[in-house]
Amino acid sequence: MNNWKIKRAEKGLRGEITVPPDKSISHRSVMFGAIAKGKYRITNFLRGDDCMSTLNAFRALGIDIRIEGDEVIVEGKGLRGLREPQGELYLGNSGTTMRVISGILAGQSFDVTLTGDDSLSGRPMGRIIEPLKLMGAGIESMRGGGQAPLIIKGAGPLRAIDYDLPVASAQVKSCVLSAGLYARGRTSVREPFQSRDHTERILEYLGADILRQGLFTAVTGEKEMTARDILVPGDISSAAFFMVAALIVKGSEIVLRNVGINPTRTGILHVLERMGGDIEIVDRYGDVEPAGDIRVRHSGLKGTVIDEGEIPLLIDEIPVLCVAASMARGETVINGIKELKVKETDRIMTVKAGLSAMGAELLEKDNDTLVISGGKERLDPASVNSFGDHRIAMSMAVASLVSGGESDIEGTACADVSYPGFLEDLNRLLGV
């Protein structure tokens, strides 16, 4: 279905669902397991478009990967087990795949070209090209301007570097650490703020020689890793849509099962609780990646201030957080929004376009701050566009639940990137 018609919710969301597997962890479970030695199983792998781009890329690189029921079985071949692909590696819309796999491919002995769709080809790749060149990698932007397609030429062993990230980016950090696996000596990365740490956790789990101290992470290269089975928890970024929906729709009480609660991803929980949200983790479990069941009840929300240092911990949740802010009493100020402008879309522009059409008040200041004036009893029904961005599509669906009628959201097939079955789960909780 390429368009959704979402009506105002006349009653609360009730019941429980299990959200899709975590996208970030699904990507990394294939990437790093494939360059470890041995057979392993990934349970609860996300089969969305982005993660399938990663899976298919490693198949093209000579890794035996098969899907059996709810498991993905991978035959890891070690650091030097990849082979030259038959042609270009097409990575669809997946920025994570392109940025992280570039670090792995920079250390190989063969050449490869990475391409993607129009959206991915417009996203900034200079931020990975710079550190990889410092490490001696042969990597170039075919179009110039630091954008895909990228050509990576086999350059032999890489040089270890100490790199200070100009922005807190888990993807760039992961790229440098990935390349560090192929470097002689110790490669280190220092962040200005904490970003998600899935790469560090999985590298530790697979036996890489890695050191972590606050915002500093280092890996010693040329050490083989051992493949181990991986269980992927549910994606808190996907759960966030239902958290906000339950908080703003009267009469709601839901339980979200098996949600990843890695401390570098729970910024959305802390902000919503600060806004007055009734959110409780009712059970905790997991090993390499912690998980839990989350209960959410309708709450009267109030505005808050989000600091720049919090953005990396909830960057994918900002669009739906803007929906919550539009229904909260008072003003919400979100600082440090520049990174949102270079996601699948300029998410500040696209969320402003959608919510403004529904009567919300959003003001951008100084190119790096977004101010949302809340206090709305309800939003206006409207026809809005997803702009091909999965998180915008689902955020607008949540906003539609508190509109005065029925809203039409155009271009919703993109939701399959991270949440196949989103509309079905929403209707289940609404009792439709």
List the helices and strands and how they pair.
Elements: E1 3-7, E2 14-18, H1 23-34, E3 37-43, H2 49-60, E4 65-68, E5 71-77, E6 89-90, H3 95-105, E7 112-115, H4 118-121, H5 126-134, E8 138-141, E9 150-153, E10 158-159, E11 162-164, H6 170-180, E12 183-184, E13 186-190, H7 198-205, E14 209-213, E15 216-220, E16 230-231, H8 236-248, E17 253-260, H9 267-274, E18 278-286, E19 290-297, E20 305-306, H10 318-327, E21 331-335, H11 347-357, E22 361-365, E23 369-373, E24 383-385, H12 390-400, E25 406-410, H13 422-430
Parallel strand pairs: 2-17, 3-16, 6-7, 10-12, 11-13, 20-21, 24-25
Antiparallel strand pairs: 1-25, 3-5, 4-5, 7-9, 8-9, 13-15, 14-15, 17-19, 18-19, 21-23, 22-23
Helix pairs in contact: 1-2, 1-7, 3-6, 5-6, 8-10, 8-12, 10-11, 10-12, 11-12
Helix content: 25-40%
What low-confidence regions span 5 or more consecutive residues with pLDDT below 50?
Answer: none
Q: What structural category do the secondary elements indicate?
A: alpha/beta
- Sheet of most strands: 4 strands, mixed
State mean pLDDT (0 to 100 scale). 95
Q: CATH first level of the largest domain: which class?
A: Alpha Beta
Q: Measure the end-to-end span.
A: 17 Å
Report the CATH superfamily of the largest domain. Answer: Enolpyruvate transferase domain
Work out the number of β strands.
25
| Whole-number total of structural domains | 2
